Each structure stands twice: as C-alpha cells, then as structure tokens.
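Shape matters. Shown next:

___
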Amino acid sequence: MKILLLGDFSGLHLNLRDGLREHGHEAIVASSGDGWKKFQKDIDISLSWNGRLDKIRRITTFLFKLTGLTGYDVIQLINPSFLGIKPHKKINQYLMDLLRRHNNKSYLLCTGEDSYYWLVSRYRLRYSPHDDYIKHDLGQNEIQWLEKSVIGYNKKVATSVQGIIPMAYEFSLGYEHFPNLLPPVHLPVNLNKIQFQRSFPGKRLVVFHGLNREGFKGTRHIRTAFEMLQKKYPNDLELVMDGRMPYDKYVEIIRRANVIVDQAYSYGWGMNAVIALAMGKIVLSGAEPEALAYLGLQSSPIINILPYPDDIVSKIEYVLEHKKEVEHMGQASRAYAEQHHDHVKVAGTFLDRWNASP
C-alpha cells in the first residue's frame, strides 16, 4: 500500500512510518517538523512567513507540494488541524477536502487536544490540564478549539473519515458517540533506533523533566516537587529541568538520566514516556487504571503520578529507597516497550484497522 501520514507533533508518525516500511509498504510522513523540535519528515509542509513577499513565495511552494499528496491508498491525520490550528484554519480545511477527493481511505488519530477534547474530556476526568494550559501556555481565556468554526471543521473531519483511531484514553472520550470510532492502538517506537542501556545510578540518582507546554504537562507541580526534594536530598538526587530543544538533543539528555518525569496531568502516557521506556529508564507519568484498562492492560512499569507535589515527591522517594533495583526496573521498562510499543507490531495493528474498514 501507499500510505501518507500527515502531520507529526511527537514523532508518532515518524516511528509508525518506519514500522510500515518494514512491512513492505510505501509510507511517507508530511509534516512541518513541529518547529524547534525539528522532527524528520519526507515532505516538508511548513507554512510560515516573514513579510508579504515571503508569504507569497511560501504559499506558492506549499501549493506545489500538494501534487505530492495525492494517489495514496491510506491517509492518516495526526490531528484535525494537522498544520497547526493557528493561523491555518482555512488552509487545513481546504487541504483536507483536496486530500479526500484525490486519495482512497482516510483516518483520524485522537492523540492530542482537539475540539472534542475541550468539549468533553475536561468535564469527564477527575483532573485535567485544561486550566493550567490556559493560564500558563495560552495566557488567555480564548480557546480556538472552542470556536464554532473550528468545532464544525473538527466534526466534518471526524465524520468524513473511514475511522477514528484513539491512542490514549482521555483523548478518546470526546469521540465515544461517533460510529466510526475504532479500538485503540499503542504508541509506536522504533526500537532499532533506540539503544537500550543498563541504568546504573551513581552517587546521585538523576531525575529529568523536559520543559514543553508547562501548563499542559503540569510542570508547576513537578517544579515544586523538585524544590522540595532538593532541600531534603541534596546529596542523593540530581534534579534536571530543561527543554525547548531539538528532538535529538532531548534524547541525549534522557540518556544520562535514571528517572524521567513525563507529565502529571495525564491519565496515560505519551511518546516521550515510550522513548524513555525503550531506553530502559524508570518513567513517572500517567498510568491510571482507566487508561490501562482502555488499552487492555492490567499493569505497566510506569509509575502513576498525580498533579500534586506531595504525590510526585513520594514516588521519587520510592525510587530512591529502591535504588538497588533501578537496573532491574529499567530492564522491565525496555521489555514492556518491546512487548507493547514495538514499531513493527504497532504498524501491523494499524494495517489491520485500515484493512478492516470498507
């Protein structure tokens, strides 16, 4: 099959592409690289400009690239607004209409925020990142996902695709009433590119939290927890916060850590957590019973944390108290990634979903 994976904000489509290619399919990622993250892509669909002349040049180049986005057996959108919601609302809709006319099957992932995540999930969850996201990331009360035109576009995409494929419990809640909602799929990671390394903590246990969308990730709670831990264990812990860097550099920082604190507001885990699992790191993130059950799991090596500093402190203290078991815990992380997140296995599941749809 010829497959177009449109948009990528976490490396999900990039890892899926690798798995599909190992199955013998022609898979292409078209994305912007998501700004400073600089994710690899096969077709660059960046759309930003400086000044009117540059705007004309870039739009002309962009429209020319559209000729390379037709004739696919399957197209899959990472998000309804795969170009980014601002300032490209109309272009997203124009491009989606063109893609549906000139390709065969189309699918939508629910793997991040969209209109239905804002409309439903924030009211269905015991805790959510929405309020902190507005305050610390957006700095305003106007949520573009809740604009009537954007909700309408989101609905149009969701109802027009052959299937909606959820990647996490909390993102799926808004789509429960859609008849084309399919069973969930695990996040893929290319284990051939992620080298496992045995984790031997030195004098100090190294704990890392990456800075990116601090409100959404619950960073303020993690920062407070780090401050509490620094005072309590100055000689036992090295607590590192850094972020807004290219993906490759980010991975290198993860390598030297023993423990990764991913995010505090999530019920499940994302690509950063999966990458850390594959490296053999201890991961603290969302691992709520609802999220595990949704994926058909009974357990996970991920240590569930809540958006409260005291809870985060207690979970890091647990690892510190079991420092001698860090190597074994890291091995369990890698084994879990191999069992559930291997890019070839996950790609096979996607192929099953696509082939089962009319």
The longest strand covers residues 205-211.
